[in-house]
Amino acid sequence: SFLIMWEFNSCNKKSANKAGFTLIEMLVVLSIFSFIAVSLFVKNSSFNSNVTLTNLAYEVALSIRQAQVYGLSVRNFDTGAGQSFAVGYGVNFDADNNVDYIFYADSNEDGYYDPPNELVETFSLRRGNILEKFCATESISGVDRCSDTGEISKLDISFKRPNPDAIIRTDLLGYSYRRATIFLVSPEGKSRMIVVRDSGQISIEQPQPIQ
Questions:
Q1: pLDDT digits over 70-94, tens only?
Q2: pTM (2 decimals)?
Q3: In whole angstroms, what is the distance from residue 21 CA to residue 115 CA?
């Protein structure tokens, strides 16, 4: 009977040893779970950043589209000397301010934002996203004039009825432009472009990587 009891206890000890985890096995499992959790967190953060930046680009594009709609419709604006229904509307970007842009009424019809009387609304970028730069492409030569090179410091895109075309102006006088491009960048370095052509077409694009 003693032999039987000894064999029974031995079997129980072996079963208990087989059922548990060793310290090394536990550490390996915890390491795997930690790696998976960190990977999912990084991917989720990157995904959220891309979504936020894309949505922001669409909001900027929508502001430009709103200027186009207002410019083509009979929308009144108080010029200070009375109500006017014939003004154009536009959006202004300034290289000295990389977090805000201006929605304005072009009451003097010069194609530029003239503060403060033409201000309609100020829009702000958020969550660390900024206006990286903006460029205007010359109509004839196709040369890009950009804010990051110091060639231009202001960009105005306006619309005035009955023409749906975009009026593109910069502080570099004496040039006509066929395209304006606004570059947004996230804190993680992701980029989106809002492209406005002189035909009035507005699109969202992703910058091509430099080869």
A1: 998 867 676 665 566 678 999 999 9
A2: 0.75
A3: 72
Q: For 30-43, what is each residue's pLDDT tens digit?
A: 777 676 765 555 55
Distance (Å, rounded) from C-alpha 70 to C-alpha 89?
Answer: 6
Average per-residue pLDDT in the chain? Answer: 83
Are residues 67 and 103 in contact, defined by beta-carbon separation less than 8 angstroms?
A: yes
The closest of 161, 177, 190 to 67, measured between CA atoms, is 161
User: Rounded CA gap, 167 and 198, in Å?
Assistant: 7
Structure tokens given for 165: 């075309």
Q: Left if phi > 0, otherwise alpha if psi is -120 to 50, otherwise beta: which for 85?
A: alpha
Element holding 69 (H helix, E strand)? helix 23-72
- What is the number of other CB atoms lying within 10 angstroms of the CB of residue 140? 8
Identify which of 164, 165, 162, 160 has the alpha carbon closest to the alpha carbon of residue 178.
Answer: 165
Cβ(167)–Cβ(89) under 8 Å? Answer: no
Cα 182 from Cα 25, distance rounded (Å): 54
Is 154 strand, coil or helix? strand
Highest mean pLDDT among 12-21, 44-53, 88-97: 88-97
Distance CA 118, CA 107 (A): 7
Q: Minimal CA–CA distance to 134: which of 95, 175, 173? A: 95
